[in-house]
């Protein structure tokens, strides 16, 4: 609690804030005095998340792929004092050979993971600048830096987010808006269940981590808190891996999991587009 009060007077928006890493981030910011607004598409999840936050916290239903929805969420989060912090955490994923990936699946991942960050930065960036400056942050992934076979849309979306962060940081610095990203390794959440519940794949992940364990939402939240707080006032355009050292080695062996799921012969046929 050494940092308690350091974010007093700050208003923050966290997308995808109803559970998992997003909720942990909202809790960490609120712990240090920020007035937090969480948003997401599922109202029941937002209501549940709100119960874990101080009474000052707010929630708003928001689809980050819809510009009007994002604009409204930013306006609510900044109501009564302006917006100072925005965390673009909302995300989704898909798995399967590229040759069997439907365009609709590709578009869903890109619209949520990339366009959603773009829209958050577009509207939150303007609001933060008008408030006198502050910080924006995106949640990337080690998949933005290391290949994950059979997760191409997700990997590409996160790599693109990292360039978006760098470019927006370059543009917005002149109006006092800092922009960074964290790159989590494997953290057990609802989105990563299919990775953490496969024993062979989980063991392979651990083998690639010098620290030898999965991360926690709270560890990601601590990194986010640093990057949006006053301690990092001279830091912008940076992508920081919080991954137990995973990016020092290789990506996970998704091939074995896929072979187990569909069979080696069927997988080869799928890769040939059949």
Question: Please, could you describe this protein's structure?
Answer:
The protein has 274 residues and is α/β, with parallel strands linked by helices. It is 45% helix and 14% strand. It has one domain (11-271): Rossmann fold (3-Layer(aba) Sandwich), CATH 3.40.50.720. The chain has helices at 20-31, 43-50, 67-77, 103-130, 152-172, 193-196, 199-207, 217-228, 254-262, 264-271, and strands spanning 11-15, 35-40, 58-61, 85-88, 134-139, 177-184, 239-242. Helix 1 (20-31) packs across helix 8 (217-228) and helix 4 runs parallel beside helix 5 (152-172). The longest helix is centred in the middle third of the chain and has 28 residues, at 103-130.
Briefly, what CATH class?
Answer: Alpha Beta
Distance between the termini: 57 Å
Poorly predicted ranges:
none
CATH fold-type name? Rossmann fold
Shape: globular
Helix content: 40-55%
What is the spatial order of strands in the main beta sheet?
3-2-1-4-5-6-7
| The named CATH superfamily | NAD(P)-binding Rossmann-like Domain
What is the mean pLDDT?
A: 96
Please provide the count of β strands. 7
Number of helices: 10
CATH architecture: 3-Layer(aba) Sandwich
The helix/strand order is EHEHEHEHEHEHHHEHH
- Class of secondary structure makeup: alpha/beta
